[in-house]
Amino acid sequence: MDHTENVMRIDYWAKFEDNCYYHIYNRGINGTNLFVREENFYFFLNRWKKYLVPYFDVLAYCLMPNHFHFLVRVKPYNDSMLDEIKRDYTQRSQKFVNGLVTYNEYLEDQFKRLFSSYALAINKQEGRHGSLLEKRFKRVLVKTDFKLSYLLVYIHHNPIHHRFSRDYRQWNFSSYNTYFSDDKTLLAKEEVLHWFDQSDLTNGKKLFQEHHEQFRLNRQMSGYHLEMD
């Protein structure tokens, strides 16, 4: 992939396509905190698991009090995925099965269900009403290896960038430490580690760590990231 792509021409609402990578992010409306208590972070991840894991591989994520980031790949569409959609029994899933909406529209609706479910729970918890998240979540197609490896580290370093933590390794609500854990995870760990060494996962993990330690914020990429930087 060519990393000379013009970063200023960005589609913040790219259509979801099979086997493509996306940087997905959103924030609380008018600066509202999305995650008020520690359990809110875990609840959101559980909602993600329920609505999106069948359709997306997660390569990296970071949840912060007022916004979040995910780096994902759309899983290749297959018959088992169609069976999953048929079991969903929502209006949008039935429309997709009957050919009335596209796969992209179905996936967008899954995000809406996630956000609505989460907002209802937080509004009840906090005794608030109305919207919790910005109306349209951003999803930027990642077209180059350079941006993919840059975003992987950028997302994990975000707590430092926004002064939520002095050490990205100590932030509990990102995927970074999961790469060094033997616990079962839904992260596409092996895929990411193979970026650094295709044949040796142990060395890939070492290079993954070094890549994070050597990271420097690239100001030339500022037009590519977010307005919330």
How would you sum up this structure in a few lines?
With 229 residues, the chain is α+β, with helices and mostly antiparallel strands. Helix content is 40%, strand content 13%. It contains seven helices and four strands, in the order E-H-E-E-H-H-H-E-H-H-H.
How would you describe this protein?
With 229 residues, the chain is α+β, with helices and mostly antiparallel strands. The protein is 40% helix and 13% strand. The chain has seven helices and four strands, in the order E-H-E-E-H-H-H-E-H-H-H. Strands 2-3-1-4 form a four-stranded antiparallel β-sheet. A hairpin with a 2-residue loop joins strand 2 and strand 3. Helix 1 runs antiparallel to helix 4 (103-126). The radius of gyration is 18 Å and the shape is globular. The protein starts with 20 loop residues before the first strand and ends in a 16-residue tail after the last helix. The model is unreliable at 1-7 and 223-229 (pLDDT under 50).
